[in-house]
Specification:
Length: 91
């Protein structure tokens, strides 16, 4: 189950987000990917156990993936295919 962390730190399943929250999150991620995001990463180097730290600037497709964009889009698309949302297609 894929999770979403809200501004206040609450963690909820993406499937339980409201439609408007889901759409706003998708737009937010798209905007951040265009602008670029700063990522921080680190670990222990090789066999000597020395910690290392670095930063990187990501934009576009790479940023979309890092931000989990496709999980949100998948949920939006799943909802749009749900039978309760097919009324307009029947007419």
């Amino acid at each position: 189950m894929k999770k979403h962390k809200t501004k206040d730190g609450t963690v909820i399943p993406i499937s339980e987000m409201t439609d408007s929250h889901l759409e706003n999150t998708i737009r937010f991620i798209e905007r951040r990917a265009r602008e670029g995001i700063l990522v921080e990463y680190g670990g222990l180097d090789g066999g000597d156990g020395q910690p290392w730290y670095d930063t990187g600037f990501l934009q576009g497709e790479v940023a979309l993936r890092v931000l989990g964009y496709y999980d949100y889009v998948e949920e939006r698309d799943r909802r749009s295919r749900h039978p309760d949302n097919m009324d307009d297609m029947i007419r």
